[in-house]
Write a structure and sequence with these properties.
By secondary structure, the chain is of the alpha/beta class. It has helices at 3-20, 87-103, 168-196; strands at 26-28, 50-53, 66-71, 74-83, 119-132, 136-147, 155-164. The N and C termini lie far apart (75 Å).
Length: 205
């Protein structure tokens, strides 16, 4: 093989190798970035209780590392667009951050529950998380509130939100984040009212 042929052969191998390279995988998280400490936000009154956010449940079809989008009646899994961690853990961490901010309290999940204030147990079950790329995200969840060590029946509620999604996968993830925050706001409002009066009802979804 001549030198020129060897050069052409090496160039061909490099080109084929480049074509065979797997596409880049992108990872997304639902956990919010640290807020800017600009002092502009009004302080939130601390709730008279701690919370204990339980393990979050999601439908089996959503329990996947890939992002999924709706295309008509089809649910398409996106191999190169993935969650940074298991989706149930991503959602739980996002809800914990949003709820502790809304209630100005601590999440004692996983810690001893011997606390100086009552501890409200929050159970969340995601019923629906459907996304249409560049259009909308539909989010539904059931949730319940109960106080640790208290015999009062739990408050069982339902939330449903529809968030517009900007173009791209990043826009879709941001719409999911806003759905989490909106659901957390509803939970926090009902939690404050229910802590004051066990006769308080759920906010209509």
């Amino acid at each position: 093989m001549t030198a020129r042929l060897r050069i052409h052969f090496a160039a061909l191998l490099l080109a084929l190798s480049a074509c065979a390279s797997p596409p880049a995988v992108h990872f997304y998280t639902l956990q919010p970035a640290a807020p800017a400490l600009d002092g502009a936000s009004a302080p939130v009154e601390a709730a008279p209780f701690f919370i204990a956010l339980q393990t979050l449940s999601i439908p089996i079809r959503l329990d996947q590392p890939q992002l999924s989008v709706r295309q008509g009646e089809r649910l398409v899994m996106l191999e190169t667009e993935r969650w940074a961690g298991p989706l149930d853990e991503e959602l739980r961490a996002a809800f914990s951050a949003a709820l502790t901010e809304q209630l100005a309290t601590q999440d004692l999940s996983g810690l001893p529950l011997r606390a100086s204030k009552p501890v409200m147990r929050i159970q969340l079950q995601v019923r629906r998380l459907d996304a249409w790329l560049g259009k909308v995200v539909e989010f539904e969840a059931d949730w319940s509130l109960s106080f640790v060590g208290e015999a009062t029946p739990a408050l069982n509620c339902h939330s449903r939100f529809s968030e517009p999604a900007a173009a791209g996968y990043g826009g879709m993830v941001q719409a999911v984040q806003r759905s989490v925050v909106a659901t957390a706001q509803q939970i926090a409002q009902d939690a404050r009212r229910w802590a004051q009066s066990r006769n308080a009802a759920c906010t209509p979804p």
